[in-house]
Structure formats: C-alpha cells, structure tokens
Design a protein that fits this description.
The protein is α+β, with helices and mostly antiparallel strands. It folds into 2 domains: 2-166, 2-Layer Sandwich (Ribosomal Protein S5, domain 2), CATH 3.30.230; 174-288, Alpha-Beta Plaits (2-Layer Sandwich), CATH 3.30.70.890. Helices cover 29% and strands 30% of the residues. The protein is built from 8 helices and 10 strands. Strands 1, 2, 3, 4, 5 and 6 form a 6-stranded mixed beta sheet that branches. The chain has a 4-stranded antiparallel beta sheet with strand order 8-9-7-10, covered by helices on one side. Helix 1 (72-83) runs parallel beside helix 2, helix 1 packs antiparallel against helix 3 and helix 6 (225-231) crosses helix 7.
C-alpha cells in the first residue's frame, strides 16, 4: 500500500472577463488565477485489489460533500485510469478534510481533483514531460480551472481557462483577507444570469497585466459581480466594507460567493479589525499572505 497526505490549495481570481460565448455552449474568458494559503487536506491510499474492478472509497469531514461518482476526485481517478490505460485493478481511498468553502469561487473541488491527479502521476511513474498534453486534456475534462491547479503558480488564463501563461512577476505584496458569508453560488446559475450575447466579442485586457500593483487594479474587474450582487446584496456590502476598512482593492473570486480584500502589510491592526468584524457575524474568514 502507498499513501500520502497532501495539501490542496485554494485560488482567487484577479479579474474575470467573458470575451465570447462559444458554439459548444462554453465561454471564452480571461482571468488571473492566484494561489492562496487556504487549503484542504487530502489523504490518499492506493493498493492493488483482488477484485476484478477498481474501487474508489471517498470520505470527508463534512456531511454535505458528495461521496459519489459525481465527486471530482472520483472522476479524476476514473479519467486517469482510462487515459493512461491502467489495466490492473486497485482499491483507492480518498479522505477529504475540507476547509475551503464549497461553492465559494475558490476552486476547492478542482484543487482536490488536481491533487489526486498529481498523486496518481507519481504512483504510476507517468513522465509528465512526455504526456503533458494528455495530462492537461484530462484536467480540462474535470473543470476549466483544474489545469491551473496542476501548475499552482500565478497564471493568466484564457480560452475556457486551459490556455495558461505563468506570470513570474505577478507577486503579491499584500495581506489578503478572504470573506465568505456562508453562501453557496452555482456557477451554472451565474453564467445563465450573465446571459452573454452569442456573436458578441470583446478584446482581452488582462493579458497586458504583468504585475499586481495599484496601477493595474482598475483592470481587474469581475464581470459576474453585477449579476451576483443583484441577488446577493450582502456580497456588494462586503466589497464596500472591505474598502472602508482600508483595503486597497476588493473583489469577488470566481462566480462567488467569496469576497477578498488586499491590505497593506503595515496595517495589521486594520486588517485584524476587519477580520474580527466578519468573525463576529459568523462569516468564514481567512488571512493569506
């Protein structure tokens, strides 16, 4: 038996712009993915099985996590075995200790799936350089942001999210306060409400953003904020409150419902007051450097 306990990190989006609705129903978009320290823990065990089939056993510390074939970790195993034609049968146990808010625009499920892929790549000694295309195709089948989580560096992403350029100079020098008012927002619902007009095209903007600094904040807009704020006014309030507490920039991550603000490193007192304000409201909060 081979086992490992791995950290599965969340992400935030700096800007999220829809550029075009595609004929296949997906959207071409652009965003900057940024990894944060908030993470789940994923414990994985694998051993050969005497049964004539694979078995995937899922467990979680949270009762609302689906432990069925719909779980992205289950799908990651299924797709991996199919893609790399693994002929032997295995028993795989995956335990998810969840700390990342579900449905919060932080990519928790996608991150978990990427960790499973990395584990299997190592266990089966798959040459990543040789099979890079197959690995990225596999990741994209699981979700538009899964390719990013395999790289786990600040990235400019376009297409569905699979066209990735690492931003070596996009370095965060702020404290990031992450706030979620215990809301779950469906990505499918958000895209439907956005109702991006077929045939409409927009030029990319974020591809010119190479640095995280005050001069670029105005470009880092999230197209979904207006749609989501119309239904969830509390999120709009959080964005404004973060700025009132001294955040130099605040935004929604993904399609929500997580908001975040950037605070200057020398203003810990203000940052802590803001965090305590939301903790007193029983909101989820996390500070990432």
């Amino acid at each position: 038996m081979f086992s490992a306990e791995l950290k599965s990190y969340a992400k935030i989006n700096f800007g999220l712009r829809i550029l075009e609705k595609r004929e296949d129903g997906f959207h071409n978009l652009e965003t900057i993915f940024y990894p944060v320290k908030l993470h789940d823990k994923v414990k994985i065990k694998i051993q050969k099985s005497e049964l004539p089939s694979n078995s995937v056993i899922l467990r979680s510390n949270k009762s609302y996590i689906p432990l069925t074939k719909d779980n992205l970790c289950y799908k990651a195993v299924e797709y991996f075995f199919r893609e790399f034609k693994i002929s032997d049968y295995y028993r795989i146990e995956i335990e998810l200790d969840k700390f990342i808010p579900v449905g919060g625009g932080l990519g928790g499920g996608s991150s978990n799936a990427s960790v499973v892929i990395k584990f299997l790549l190592k266990y089966f000694k798959i040459d990543i350089a040789v099979h890079r295309k197959e690995i990225l195709d596999l990741a994209l089948k699981l979700g538009s942001d899964v390719p990013f989580f395999l790289i786990h560096k600040p990235c400019y992403a376009s297409g569905r999210g699979e066209k990735i350029t690492v931003l070596k100079e996009f370095v965060n020098t702020y404290d990031i306060l992450i706030v979620n008012p215990n809301l779950h927002i469906s990505t499918k619902w958000a895209f439907e409400k956005l109702n991006f007009e077929p045939g409409k095209k927009r030029d990319p903007v974020l591809n010119n953003v190479k640095y995280l600094n005050i001069e670029n904040f105005s470009f880092l807009e999230n197209d979904f904020e207006n749609v989501v704020f119309n239904k969830y006014e509390e999120l709009k309030n959080i964005k404004e409150e973060l700025k009132k507490y001294g955040a130099v920039y605040s935004s929604m991550s993904g399609t929500g419902a997580t908001m975040f603000g950037l605070f200057e490193k020398n203003k810990k007192g203000t940052l802590n007051k803001c965090r305590d304000y939301y903790k007193n409201k029983k909101y989820f909060t996390y500070i990432s450097g």
